[in-house]
Write a structure and sequence with these properties.
The complex is a heterodimer. Chain A is α+β, with helices and mostly antiparallel strands. Chain A is built from 17 helices and 33 strands. Chain B is built from 3 helices and 10 strands. The model of chain B is unreliable at about 15-65 (pLDDT under 50). The chains are: A alpha+beta, B alpha+beta. At the A-B interface, α1, β6, β9, β11 and α4 of A face α1, β1, α2, β2 and α3 of B.
């Protein structure tokens, strides 16, 4: 049903083909539908000569045997099915994608390179397996057998995914109501020349995803490597006696391949327009390093891919569960759950209560993206089942997965995922091809979109649920399945605690809060299509919010009693280990050599000159509701005011050499936020809401302007008027007065030259900012994530739970700060951290006093302080 | 014999099936071929950002002044940095040059280099990511496409004795 009417126009020719193929089909029916694998003695290559087939396992040895304690991964004696592998000589295949070009026409695309490939392992000398006389049927349990089966499952999911993606594109562009502009790219119009967005791509060229079927790794593991587009399915000698390898479990193959497909969906809008025009080298990721909610969503969707293919509501019984007790359920009815959950409204695996729930050991709280992701997988599976039970379906038709109903319902869900991820991952800033050029509706703008999509406004549970629900309304409730009403959708989300938003933000992240889809459409892209964008914001029916509790941001703060305000790590060995760990993962935590470094760390749990310090803020939740997805941001933001907007040159040696700039050196003062600093202490009040003033938030987040003036011959870096600034500033004693001043002003009084600053021009070049001369948050560790904070408890108390032991901190909850060795001891600093959480009632929206309605913050406002609770972390630098 | 006949019929069927010109609605072609054809007739890109654009090295116009110079032995500089961080854990560091990106801001431009960084700590424990590096300073500007493991092993640190009080 997804191939379109055009497929039948050449019916006579097709009929002839069918007649010719028919004898083959009949001949193939002579093969048994299932065979018993008996090792090397039978079912040899010769039995399948010319068929390009092999015996395949359709599920893991544990599932096929029905024995939960199966001692080995051998498939001998289990039901194996002859299946077509590939007509190629090696385990490689190109990918095909059918792209609708109008309501009635389609275009078949094929990748220029092989899109999938399977090898035994990542040894550079490993040769590709070849078929022998058109047969792939190697002895059961052999290395060749594992490779062939891995390829079979990789290909099977890839084909299913592309079929679903074709359905998605066709529906959202040509058959749906078109009440919201499609996020997946358009093939029509003149803005997209290269629709190579259905697969992993670099420089407009499709890439080969290589899977290693027996990837030697200790301890046992599996991974997806998006830099090399590789999947490693683990195997090692330790489990050789069990004939164990992860590739024996198709659910795990689907999960790992799922990560690659998530990367594809996240980057659908980031494919460059043509190979000669490189728009951005970056790509979006769903989740960053270690623990965050984006990562949890990624894992939940990857688990869902297993259900999508197999229809089973548990993943990894063999590869993760048999020896490692890490199998994961995807339904409350799964017997793996040892707690009181059920498929009823009250007993769903809901957010945030079950964020740290390990079904294999429910007695412990474990902060891990895979376990947190179970909430997402349970929701997606329940949604699919709900579609199956609610929507009207055709009763006849072909299917390739489980059954027709499952295929259609899971296609609906995958369409929603694809649309949602295309929007969340958009680095182009538009969110849809419908949006006209330079009108940014998503992730701020082209220059800052990477920062916005991954740090400042990343995909957390709220943003994912909101965007996903918007797509349900547009493509399901008012389109494919009216029986699944908006109320029903909201009630289901609420049963999982995911009704975390008040309005659907139908009109995108919105650049300045005034523009609408309706006013900015690019008709040339959507010519001939009846796009009718909504001009109103759809609000959530508050009667449907029963479990999803929202909490005001004012309830989170540092403790004001005897409890510690933070946990501080400055032991040289711990910091060295943290830096190594973060660097290994790819985080940029390079310190300023010679000015700060671990060699200065004294391990006294104080903050001293030259140290690299880890800080986990001990935030307290003063409300009676759990706060979840707490994010602490320590990146630069618009919180200081330039004293004279005509004097914007950066205070650095090069600017003191030229007449144009030497008398126009910039001076920044801290804005007064929540009455700190007071005006008498150097704080600046908002004043008139005009550019460069405290009340005005930068619309583009630009920091240092390197453009040359007409009469200049060298770069004279200067700030933009509302340049975001580093978070820490300094207390300065002036005679009898105490003032809070910028680091630049303080370093001048301390007589610290440019080259003695942190991130000095040797490191930062033209982007040197003296406002981080003394204290600098390391860029790769300038945000911290706290999974959840229990009511009336601090972060540390939540981590401890009922234990009497000291709390154990995950690296993801720790910020890293470097201190200039030239800071005089006794100096007091204030660092302004911005904090928000996913179930926050006023971190993403505010009450518009002019209309008395809730309104979502526009993207640019996340460059300021309003959507956040501002935390002032003050400390004295000790010797 | 029966199999040979079957094989012959398949070959015939496949040839016949793919020979037909399905020009009414379906065009079979590779993406690479498609893009090659389209470049020749590309109109000016209508939605290029005005303020800042990024281009591949080969498309950089010559009248732009580059203000940062490539550091000598940049790659050695990067490897030295990683070697220093991993001095306690044997780690094989390798770099693969990917491309040079020109950042343009008005009349100013600066070049950035994209490298694929591979870190190997043995026993299959690898990490790989892409990094944009300022060739003049050797600084890592941005990293992305990080390796995603199934069983994560984040560093976990005891808070014993690490309480910090604002008691000044």
């Amino acid at each position: 049903m997804f191939l379109g009417k055009g497929m039948f126009k050449n019916s006579q020719k097709n009929l002839a083909s069918i007649i010719l193929i028919l004898p083959l089909f009949i001949a193939s029916c002579e093969d048994p539908t299932t065979l018993k694998g008996k090792g090397k003695s039978t079912n040899s290559l010769g039995d399948f000569y010319g068929t390009h087939k092999s015996l395949t396992y359709l599920d893991s040895p544990l599932i096929l045997s029905g024995n939960p304690n199966k001692p080995t991964g051998s498939f001998a004696g289990l039901s194996l099915v002859p299946n077509f592998i590939t007509a190629n000589q090696t385990l490689t295949e190109k990918c095909f994608f059918t792209q609708s070009t109008s309501t009635f026409t389609k275009e078949n695309l094929v990748t220029s390179n092989d899109c999938i490939k399977v090898l035994l392992n990542d040894d550079p000398n490993t040769l590709m397996l070849t078929s022998e006389n058109g047969s792939w049927n190697y002895p059961v349990d052999s290395d060749e057998f594992i490779q062939v089966n891995t390829f079979y499952h990789i290909k099977k999911l890839t084909e299913a995914f592309h079929k679903t993606l074709s359905f998605t594109h066709d529906h959202v562009h040509f058959r749906g109501n078109l009440v919201i502009p499609p996020a997946t790219p358009s093939r029509m119009g003149n803005s997209f020349y290269n629709a190579n967005n259905f697969w992993l791509s670099e420089l407009g060229i499709s890439q080969t995803l290589t899977t290693f079927a027996k990837c030697n790794i200790e301890p046992m593991n599996a991974y997806f490597d998006p830099a090399n587009n590789e999947i490693c399915l683990g195997w090692n000698e330790q489990y050789a006696q069990h004939k164990f390898s992860m590739a024996q479990d198709p659910s795990v193959i689907y999960h790992e391949l799922g990560h690659a497909l998530i990367k594809t969906m996240m980057n659908q809008r980031n494919i460059e327009h043509s190979p000669t025009y490189r728009f951005k080298p970056f790509q979006s990721e769903l989740g960053t390093l270690f623990y965050d909610e984006g990562g949890a969503i990624n894992e939940g969707i990857a688990d869902y891919f297993s259900y999508y293919m197999l229809g089973r509501k548990r993943i990894g019984e063999w590869a993760m569960g048999r020896f490692f007790k890490s199998a994961r359920p995807m339904s409350e009815s799964d017997s793996l759950h040892k707690i009181d959950v059920a498929e009823t409204f009250d007993k769903r695996l809901s957010y945030p209560h079950f964020l740290q729930y390990d079904p294999n050991d429910p007695s412990r709280n474990y902060e891990d993206i895979h376990y947190a992701g179970q909430i997402v997988s349970h929701y997606l599976v329940t949604l699919t089942e709900d579609f199956k039970n609610t929507c009207s379906y055709p009763t006849t038709g072909s299917f390739s997965r489980v059954n027709l109903k499952h295929e259609i319902a899971s296609n609906y869900v995958m369409m929603l995922i694809s649309e949602t991820l295309a929007e969340l991952g958009d680095l182009y800033g538009r969110g849809s091809d419908f949006i006209a050029v330079n009108d940014y509706f998503n992730n701020l703008n082209t220059d800052q979109s990477f920062l916005w999509a991954h740090v400042v406004n990343p995909a957390n549970m709220r943003r994912f649920a909101q965007t996903f629900a918007k797509n349900i309304n547009a493509y399901i409730s008012s389109d494919l399945c009216p029986e699944f009403s908006i109320d029903r959708s909201e009630q289901l989300l609420d049963s999982y605690g995911l009704l975390l938003f008040k309005s659907y933000k139908d009109q995108g992240q919105n650049f300045d809060g005034t523009k609408t889809y309706a006013g900015l459409g690019n008709p040339s892209v959507f010519a001939g299509r009846n796009l009718q964008p909504q001009s109103i914001e759809t609000n959530v029916n508050e009667l449907n919010r029963r479990k999803s509790s929202l909490v005001a941001k004012s309830f989170i703060n540092l403790p004001d009693d005897t409890r510690s305000v933070a946990y501080l790590f400055d032991s040289p060995s711990i910091i060295r280990q943290m830096l190594a760990n973060l660097t290994f993962e790819g985080a940029n935590v390079r310190t300023t050599e010679g000015i700060a470094g671990v060699e200065y760390n004294n391990g006294k749990v104080d903050i001293s000159p030259g140290e690299i310090v880890g800080i986990s803020l001990n935030l307290v939740n003063n409300s009676n509701t759990t706060m979840a997805g707490v994010q602490i941001l320590a990146n630069d933001f618009d919180h200081m005011e330039i004293e004279n907007k005509d004097n914007r040159y950066v205070n650095r040696n090069i600017n003191k050499l030229y007449s144009n700039s030497q008398n126009k050196i910039a001076k920044f003062n801290p804005c007064s936020i929540n009455n700190f600093p007071k005006v008498s202490e150097g704080g600046i009040l908002g004043g008139i809401d005009s550019e460069s003033k405290c009340d005005f938030i930068t619309k583009n987040n630009e920091q240092i302007d390197l453009s040359l003036l007409p009469d200049e011959t060298a770069i004279s870096p200067k700030y933009f008027k509302d340049a975001p600034q580093p978070v820490c500033f300094v207390e300065k004693m002036d005679q009898n007065q105490t003032r809070w001043v910028s680091q630049d002003e303080a370093r001048t009084s301390f007589q610290i030259e440019d080259h003695h600053c942190l991130n000095n021009p040797l490191m930062s070049g033209n982007k040197f900012n003296p406002n981080e001369c003394l204290i600098r948050m390391l860029p790769g560790a300038n945000q911290a994530i706290l999974g959840k904070i229990d009511p009336q408890k601090t972060w540390a108390e939540t981590l401890k739970g009922d234990s009497n032991e000291a709390p154990i901190f995950n690296q993801s909850s720790i910020l890293l700060m470097e201190l200039n060795k030239n800071i005089p001891p006794g100096t007091v600093f204030n660092c302004r951290f911005r904090v928000r959480f996913s179930n926050c009632s006023d971190c993403y929206n505010y009450r518009d006093t002019s209309t008395n309605k809730e309104k979502e913050y526009a993207d640019y406002e996340y460059a300021g302080h309003k959507p956040f609770q501002t935390i002032n972390f003050q400390f004295l630098v000790k010797p | 014999m029966k199999k040979l006949i079957g094989l012959f019929i398949i070959i015939l069927a496949v040839i016949f099936f793919f020979r037909e010109e399905r020009d009414d609605v379906v065009i079979e072609k590779s993406v690479k071929e498609k893009t090659r054809r389209e470049i020749a007739s590309l109109p000016p890109i209508p939605d290029m950002p005005k303020k800042m654009i990024m281009k591949a090295e080969e498309t950089v116009s010559r009248d732009i002044t580059s203000t940062n110079k490539e550091a000598t032995k940049l790659e050695q500089k990067i490897i030295d940095h990683y070697s220093q961080v991993f001095e306690e854990v044997e780690t094989k560091v390798s770099l693969e040059y990917m491309q040079t990106i020109i950042l343009e801001e008005d009349a100013h431009s600066s070049s950035m280099q994209v490298y694929k960084v591979s870190l190997d700590q043995g026993l299959g424990n690898k990490s790989r990511f892409l990094a944009m590096i300022d060739p003049e300073t050797g600084s890592i500007v941005k990293t992305w496409n990080h390796t995603r493991y199934e069983f994560k092993r984040p560093l976990r640190i005891s808070g014993e004795g690490q309480e910090f009080y604002a008691d000044f």
